[in-house]
Amino acid sequence: QVQLVESGGGLVQAGGSLRLSCAASGKIFSRNNMGWYRQAPGKQRELVALITSVGSTNYADSVKGRFTISKDNAKNTVYLQMNSLEPKDTAVYYCNVQWRIATLHEFWGQGTTVTVSS
């Protein structure tokens, strides 16, 4: 069983910063991708940032230059540093870990809420 525990969400004013953390535990394949997704009210869940087991990263266009994803492989923890936050970043942020061995294995955290006030 894999568990993902997120922390770091909260309320911040526009222009401020937050750092999200996600600690993964359980039987996790080493060659995994970890990422952050978000879902705003009335919208579909979307990818925010992804980091592979070798450190390659991918970002949504809307957060490039403002958000940074990083990972501590020894702790199986992924971080999302969010700077220059904007009201449009308001959403529930979900941590995700996935790997493919014959089939896709994918797990989600419970979500942490980020609210950016104008």
β-strand number: 11
C-alpha Rg (nearest Å): 14 Å
The coarse silhouette is globular
Uncertain runs are none
The chain-level structural class is mainly beta
The biggest beta sheet, please?
7 strands, mixed
CA(first)-CA(last) distance: 40 Å
- As a percent range, the share of strand residues is over 45%
- Provide a count of the helices: 0
State the helicity in percent bands: under 10%
Average residue-wise pLDDT: 95
Order of helices and strands: EEEEEEEEEEE
How does this structure look, described?
With 118 residues, the chain is mostly beta strands. Helices cover 0% and strands 59% of the residues. The strands form 2 sheets. Strands 2, 4, 5, 6, 9, 10 and 11 form a 7-stranded mixed beta sheet that branches. Strands 1-3-8-7 form a 4-stranded antiparallel beta sheet, with no helix packed on it. A hairpin with a 4-residue loop joins strand 7 and strand 8 (77-82).
Write the layout of secondary structure elements.
Elements lengths: L1 E6 L2 E4 L4 E9 L6 E7 L6 E6 L5 E3 L7 E6 L4 E6 L8 E11 L1 E6 L3 E6 L1
Parallel strand pairs: 2-11
Antiparallel strand pairs: 1-3, 3-8, 4-5, 4-9, 5-6, 7-8, 9-10, 9-11
